[in-house]
Amino acid sequence: MFPLLKNCLVAKHGINYEILVRCSGLSASKAYSTKSNNGSKNIVFVDGVRTPFLLSGTQYKNLLAYDLARHSLVCLQKKIDFPKEIVDYIVYGTVMQEVRTSNIGREAALAAGYSEHTPAHTVTMACISSNQAITTGMGLIACGVYDAVVAGGVEFMSDIPIRHSRRMRSLMLQANKAKTMMNKLTLLASIRPAHFVPDLPAVAEFSTGETMGHSGDRLAAAFGVSRKEQDDYALRSHTLAARAQQEGNLSDVMPFKVQGVDQVVDKDNGIRVSTEEQLAKLKPAFVKPYGTVTAANASFLTDGASAALIMSEEKALQLGLKPKAYLRNFTYVSQDPVDQLLLGPSYAIPKILNKAKLDVKNIGVWEIHEAFAGQICANLKALDSDLFAQKFLKKSEKVGVPDLNKWNAWGGSLSLGHPFAATGVRLATHTANRLIKEDQQFGLIAACAAGGQGVGMIMERYPGAKV
């Protein structure tokens, strides 16, 4: 269906190692399905939900991130039908923070009717913020501190915080402290036109000043990923997402009646199945005129929220709940944020496989965050490269290429959308649901994140689980 997609797996062709150099199997035990591999208590993923993921500036544009987060928490409880009082702790992620709801996890939980005695905190780790929410909850459960944790994340790109310039902020703070009218008039007289230039947030690395799109273009060039390969992968993502939507596989989406919007919002609205010809006409979005990253082969600014219930297996069974999967292992990685910003999966995948005592062929479900099509193709090439493995992973041979029939089978961030802090729970919920629907044992989640960081997680289908 997409013949040129296969080209992105041929690692020996077109990798520019000069750019990369600047930056500095065991088989599975089938008893693993009922016993943790490290002797600690079993932690289960009961279920997860999300709002529809929408292009920023569309139906959610007049809301707050708080509204989306609240909806995810309300829908999670309704779908699973658990008493809210059993939740011991809430960890919620966000990246672009609304100052009025700085601890959005707590504010959304109160608004959603969770107990006022349930503590909550907010985490941020860029695109893997809700992965961090899940694994923080796993740590609390593993240590015996709590039995039931809700993890989630929200992003609202329709209304990002824009500040006055620093000079204007300084004057306003001084004015607030001014005691006399003369002091206030003096400060007012010192205002200049330049004071009114706003301080705009940038989707760029603070340490490098470079946007992720530029990094994506450079990574694609380093691995010899063509524009055609990227467009083919983007077309694959949208085609699979459209099919999953039509077949009802996106059952984690909870309809949302938005005030002021006539129709109930009940599906992701960023899925666009174009033609190869239409994709080829788009101009480069970042490196002009020779770049290969376009608006169509990159993830888009998205509004959305997600939430999941994780518990000790003992507590879930005691409450009569039916888990979907075990949360088995996780790891975080970080590398050079200049030339390897988006290579998190290439580092996290071998590390988590080794930790779980699995290899590529044991994984039946792959859910990998798609920041850019070029980033995905580059990571696939890295996994299929002996030279990359030896030079950067300190392994004797390559990790190997996953079966693409098991890779993001319901689409990914390129098509479904990418609300930064909400994507991690979406990946986990899709992994759990796909494990059941596709009758697989192990699923692997991986994602890159700003700062050159990444995550890898292993989930295992729960015996007898149903969607």
UniProtKB/TrEMBL annotation:
This is acetyl-CoA C-acyltransferase. InterPro entries: Thiolase, Thiolase-like, Thiolase_acyl_enz_int_AS, Thiolase_AS, Thiolase_C, Thiolase_CS, Thiolase_N. Pathway: Lipid metabolism; fatty acid beta-oxidation. Its EC number is 2.3.1.16. The gene is LOC106742808. Signal peptide: none annotated. The keyword Signal does not apply. GO terms for molecular function: acetyl-CoA C-acyltransferase activity. Keywords: Acyltransferase, Cytoplasm, Fatty acid metabolism, Lipid metabolism, Mitochondrion, Transferase. Residues 43-314 form the Thiolase N-terminal domain. GO terms for cellular component: mitochondrion. Pfam families: Thiolase_C, Thiolase_N.
